[in-house]
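User: Please fill in residues for this 364-position structure.
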């Protein structure tokens, strides 16, 4: 197994193409052709984690946060980022990061929080646009069902809770092949008119390459026309944040204690209590001040996130209870989910769960 194989496994679970534009995901440090000797999974790939990797004979680190987030002009060991990079290069250790690819997944960061809080009826808080595409191509009717079935296997024809979706309409196709052509129907140099079917499929963005490869292999024509457009359909499985419900409502004070218990944190910053009962909860792991209005619009009783600033708490305006549980605390269980997934997929050697406590925020 090489590093590229690990990247593929992670991309299958949390497609990197859904990461935010500002983010840095995938292979951060290393060579994708290097042979994998051991894997360690962590939240933050800091220098102490690299030391742990060396000690446990792991040459691949899979981290939630990317160690390189902003541009670098030099590597001189002058800060924690440069020290980590230098030690990785020196010891031939690769780092792969997932970050907002996992944030935007329906089974990612926010689903983990919802599961910890035992929420039901969960759905994406801010569904992502531009992630559902549409493929259209043209072919003889006799080849239609075979091509459709091959494309279905590749992921075409899915939208929301439905699969094997397509739309087709009959029409007349015309073509005239030149001397280098090799037409399946008609002869080169002849103007040909045939009955064709125009068929259209929707598909998730991350399946595009596989679908196009399938189309190339299975389309009956030697030269075939196709179109791909990006739709404005909302993708229920991709987006930031999540909203769900408690099985039984509880008071705000009781719910704050409930968060502390379930999310393993002793301190929670929150807005003014509103004396409402808590039933509907919006969550967004990591920095989530930008989604306060989304949580309010979704009629959430409480919004759980982190990194709220002083003036953010005024935005509650007695319409919602805002709770800041801490950045590390909101994402601490991501490494466990990644570790479980890789352990299920890779059985020929153990996947190590980092024991390094990487929270840079201390409480006294």
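Assistant: Residues filled in for all 364 positions:
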């Amino acid at each position: 197994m090489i590093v590229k194989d690990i990247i593929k496994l992670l991309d299958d679970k949390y497609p990197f193409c859904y990461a935010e534009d500002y983010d840095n995901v995938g292979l951060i440090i290393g060579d994708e052709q290097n042979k994998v000797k051991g894997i360690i999974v962590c939240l933050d790939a800091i220098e102490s984690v690299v030391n742990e990797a060396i000690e446990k004979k792991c040459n691949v680190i899979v981290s939630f946060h990317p160690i390189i987030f902003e541009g670098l002009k030099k590597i001189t060991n002058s800060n924690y980022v440069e020290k980590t990079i230098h030690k990785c290069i020196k010891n031939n250790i690769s780092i792969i990061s997932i970050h907002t690819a996992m944030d935007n997944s329906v089974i990612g960061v926010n689903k983990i929080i919802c599961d910890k809080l035992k929420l039901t009826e969960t759905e994406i808080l801010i569904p992502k646009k531009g992630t559902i595409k549409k493929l259209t191509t043209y072919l003889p009717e006799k080849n239609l069902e075979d091509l459709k079935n091959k494309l279905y296997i590749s992921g075409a024809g899915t939208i929301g809770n439905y699969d094997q979706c397509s739309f087709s309409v009959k029409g007349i196709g015309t073509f005239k092949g030149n001397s280098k052509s090799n037409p399946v129907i008609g002869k080169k140099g002849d103007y040909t008119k045939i009955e064709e079917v125009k068929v259209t499929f929707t598909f998730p963005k991350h399946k595009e390459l596989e679908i196009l490869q399938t189309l190339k292999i299975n389309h009956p024509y030697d030269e075939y026309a196709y179109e791909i457009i990006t739709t404005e359909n909302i993708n229920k499985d991709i987006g930031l944040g999540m909203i769900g419900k408690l099985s039984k409502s509880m008071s705000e004070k009781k719910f704050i204690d409930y968060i502390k218990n379930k999310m393993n944190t002793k301190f929670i910053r929150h807005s003014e209590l509103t004396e409402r009962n808590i039933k509907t909860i919006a969550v967004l792991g990591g920095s989530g001040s930008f989604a306060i209005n989304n949580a309010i619009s979704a009629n959430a009783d409480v919004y759980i996130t982190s990194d709220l600033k002083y003036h953010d708490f005024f935005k509650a305006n007695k319409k919602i209870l805002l709770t800041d549980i801490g950045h590390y605390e909101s994402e601490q269980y991501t490494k466990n989910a990644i570790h479980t997934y890789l352990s299920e997929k890779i059985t020929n050697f153990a996947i190590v769960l980092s024991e390094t406590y990487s929270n840079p925020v201390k409480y006294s």
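For context: Residues 44 and 358 are 6 Å apart (CA to CA).
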